[in-house]
Amino acid sequence: MDKEVDYSLCWLEYSKIDDEPYREKLSKVVKNIIAVGQDKFTQTAVEELKTAVTSLVGFEPEVSKEALCGDNPISGIIVGNVTDALIMKYISDDEIQKLDEEGYVIKSVKENPGLVVIGSKNGHGLVYGAFSFIKHIQLKRDVEEVHIIDNPKCKLRLLNHWDNMDGTVERGYAGRSIFFCDNKVTNSLGRIKDYARLLSSIGINGVVINNVNVNKNAIWLITPKYLGDLAKLADVFRQYGIKIYLSINFASPIYIGKLKTADPLDEDVIKWWKETAKTIYEYIPDFGGFLVKADSEFNPGPYKFGRDHADGANMLAEALAPYGGIVIWRCFVYNCTQDWRDTKTDRAKAAYDIFKPLDGKFAENVVLQVKYGPMDFQVREPVSPLFGGLERTNQLIELQITQEYTGQQIDLCYLATMWKEVLEFDTYAKGPESKVKYVVDGTLFNNKYSGFAGVSNVGSDKNWTGHWLAQANLYAFGMLAWDHSFTPEEIAREWCVRALTNDPFAVETIVSMLMRSWRVYEKYTAPLGIGWMVTPHTHYGPSVDGYEYSKWGTYHRADTKAIGIDRSVKSGTGFAGQYHRENAAMFESMETCPEELLLFFHRVPYDYVLKSGETLIQHIYNTHFEGAEEAEKLKEDWVKIKDYIRKDIYEDVLERFNRQIENAKEWRDVVNSYFYRKTGIPDKYGRKIY
């Protein structure tokens, strides 16, 4: 799929500014773009500014290398490195000192009205600065008083694509892969460039382009068979400050190298990986590194050879270290052979039990990638105890942008509200204010590498994300990875104005819908943190007992008297004890446990009275009725703004809301009927339960 295909450019699909006074004021600034330097990043920044100005203002700016007219600079935008003499004329040493390697400064020059300077220490920051100024214009902010110094809070801001080489996308809900088709790497570089533009505009600096479950042809991506084509992708991403990474199969020395073992301490295996790394960097000099899923869900790993995860990760890290590459090692590792009658084995404990003893044993270019919760991207989970538990190890927080368990880009579910709660969770690792956000930005434990990894929700669909409004999740991920101080509401509003409409009524309506949507979805699906009541394999729609007797450890253990998992130290699996003292005590007791996680940590009788005054069973009934009603309200709100939304977008989203309403009703009826039949306790309000 390439440029001739009519696909959306999301928040970079610039519409002419309809505010004439603002446009006229802006025209004085943007009529000229002065490029200081001819490197690829300066050219990219200038190209993006030129494209945006042409569409937003209605004329094509003059682009030149010359900034002087007589003794005075002309009006316009000067773009360049802060070490250049011209840039230094307008940016102080103090401002330069405040810049990190990827940061930028945007500054209107008061002594020279109509002049704006965009500067950075390196090219990556210059591209980010150009996109930031474009956003400034889109949001109609004052260009005569602009003064921005901005640095990313996190070093690593990565997207994980679960794309397969046959073109399918595991847990993908937006069409087929944009990277692969028919076991080949795409040559449709137009769409790849537009994707790089979208990601760079929200500060993403790395993409893992293939599925973490590496098999079949994908095993060979690290060989010359595919590296030439991958180098072409890397060339496109590079000009936008983005590195490419590859997921690998740990047993590649056996599959590719024909060795008898993949033991990470075997000399031949070590040599094979070093030679492989050398070859990769010959094709892609700025290759980011490897993402590894090992010893999990049947993927091979060091356990098979009697070694631990530090042994495996460090061996790969040694191979990449000479080139500046990193190993990203996933902590999604657990025993998947549990018997449902075993009430002491607990999948939630696995990651901490495995990786906590290895804290401090990983090489400095190894980063552990930790899912935000201990299970698997459920609509409500506690924060993983590894955040705060790992004090001497680099770590990334793994978030799932693709909506595997949260509506699959059919149901509206704005995930920034969930992510923000996770980031604000206090681990107490170093006392109060040891929040997750300070773990993942590296400041709490002074990590060399840290940040965010998001499982992408992008595919070949016209709108990239299946549901037009699901673009907001991709946008929000990038914004929070760049700066976790943003609020979900301000991100939603910013995205809406840039991507959909700037009508005040429509904007406020959409922002309200987005902000409510996660809680609406939670209400009509699984209650109080229990999770997993989904249809097996597809994970969309209700099946209360679908995973109840599986080997995956995904139980709710509902019977006629109670529901929930006892994860207390006193009488349960002991998971609550993996947290630092303050949180361990909070989760240990039913009385102090946050009610939204009550069934995750405790086995609770149906007649237990919640803080609302309602019994547990009545709460289940109430929330499922409310959730279905509120899903209908989302559609009603969308209909109200029909006149402010482009027709094709309006109709596509309306169709999604119709599907969501049916899904919500099914959840309501299946879950309520299940618990009514299980308990024999009727709904006290007499509503229809089958």
From TrEMBL:
The active site is at E297, D376, E404. One of its GO terms (biological process) is glucuronoxylan catabolic process. Pfam families: Glyco_hydro_67C, Glyco_hydro_67M, Glyco_hydro_67N. The keyword Hydrolase applies. It catalyses: Hydrolysis of (1->2)-alpha-D-(4-O-methyl)glucuronosyl links in the main chain of hardwood xylans. It comes from the Bacteria. Residues 137-464 form the Glycosyl hydrolase family 67 catalytic domain. Its EC number is 3.2.1.131. Residues 465-687 form the Glycosyl hydrolase family 67 C-terminal domain. Belongs to the glycosyl hydrolase 67 family. PANTHER family: ALPHA-GLUCURONIDASE A. Homodimer. This is Xylan alpha-1,2-glucuronidase. It comes from Caldanaerobius polysaccharolyticus. The gene is agu67A.
